[in-house]
Amino acid sequence: MDFGPTWTKIEVPALNEWRVETSKNSILSLKLESGTAEIFGTELSKNLTYVFKESLKFAVSTYHGCTLSYTASTPLDLEYISEETMLKQLLNLHLSIENLSVKGTQTRMLIMGPKDVGKSTISRTLAAYTLKTSEKSPILVNIDPRLPHFAISTQLTAAKLYDLLDVETSTIGESSTTGPGTGIYKPQIPLVKSFGLENYNENLELYKCLISELSYEVDSKIKASSNDAGTIIIDTPPFNISDWKLVQHIVDSFKINTLLVVGNERLLVDLRKKLNSSGTLNMIKLARSSGCVDKEPKFERELQQRSIKQYFYGVERAQLNPYTFHCSVKDFIFLRPKEQETDMTFLDFMNGDADDDDNYNITAIKEEGSDDDYDPFSQTTSKKVVRAKQNWKYQNMLTLLDDPKETDLTYAVLSIIDSKDINIVKLMSSKIDAKEKLSELAKHITTKSVVGFSYVSGFDEKTGKLKLLIPSPVTSLPGSIMVITQMRYQE
């Protein structure tokens, strides 16, 4: 006789956490029986079953103690209770942010540190705490292209949070295709910038330009929403001290006033010497949690592939039936981010802190009421937006593929860029110089947000016929400019 799955009870003392690692193809069901508990700052509801699929690494934390019960389709790779948590430190940090907010100061926090020290966990937890205790909505920004946060990997994102984040997905936020009308969670509509590369240093010119554009659009969002935005929290790649000029660019672009360095005191000391903050930058250190584990490349790749699959096929409670769109390769403009050599030469090392180029200083100008002031969040035009401008080397950002090959497109994930504000026919005319054409396209792509993604499920190079997978049926795609990302997906 089948009596159903066997549930195991776990008693977690106050200020402790239950740490779990699951294997691939496993299903873990979890319930909070009594007490209070949270995952990444999001509180669990009593007697509600949470289902976790695939390979995951997470922790259930509790301030007051709790009783959990779980059942798993396969034995857990690891599970134990730890008293070495960051709960007190994170709560104190959150209370400091809230005190500043009461005084009318908006916290703009940049979280830095080496790889696998818990930067994303801290970002997510602080955002969740702000949602619970403040009337203002936090803005969660991800500028680590490796992470699939609110979009597939290779993208830079910013999302204004209105409701709790989904604890059942390790990609932090559902995409715009899986969010609407799903369960108890409201959809997040992020700003997405297409970087297209996994490592930020593969094209620093493009990366820095997108940082500037993303910061401008975040400020536009804040101004358009009557300043109801709360803390801005920025998750970063594993920067080191050699990236200090890039860090300075991020600090200036986002007007950072709080720098949190996790798990590397030396980095904090060095940044204090390097950064020009005019005394307005509060620098804080935070020790690495003992619960942080080194993520193997295989685990990271599985997470990236999972986020792509979720975008096209949805999640368990909101499944999608993706649609195959048949078209011609000539219907679109294809570009690929340039991959640049970034290794330091001997002369670079000897020159030490010499400036990389003349484009570092930012000049801000006001463009009142122009088309560039369009805010994609509110769909209104702001009259007080100040846009930071630089002499970007647009020709170094992207490569235009006039005649894409099968090897360029097959199994590629594409970022779709809105093209309604650009005269494609005129721009692609043979009368336009190739460098000017590339610069105009790069400028357009960097100033626009990604409107969606497609996956090349088939391409016949001889006939030019293209098969694109998209989340839902449409008669035409929302843009004719495609950025070929480094992401590949094969069903």
From TrEMBL:
Residues in Clp1 N-terminal domain copies: 12-100
Q: Which UniProt keywords apply?
A: ATP-binding, Nucleotide-binding
Q: Which domain of life is it from?
A: Eukaryota
Q: Which GO terms describe its biological process?
A: mRNA 3'-end processing; tRNA splicing, via endonucleolytic cleavage and ligation
Per the database record, which ranges form the Clp1 P-loop domain? 113-314
Which GO molecular function annotations are given, in alphabetical order? ATP binding; polynucleotide 5'-hydroxyl-kinase activity
Where does the Clp1 C-terminal domain start and stop, copy by copy? Answer: 320-491
Any one annotated GO CC term = nucleus
Name listed for the protein in its UniProt record: Polynucleotide 5'-hydroxyl-kinase GRC3
Organism, by scientific name, is Pichia californica
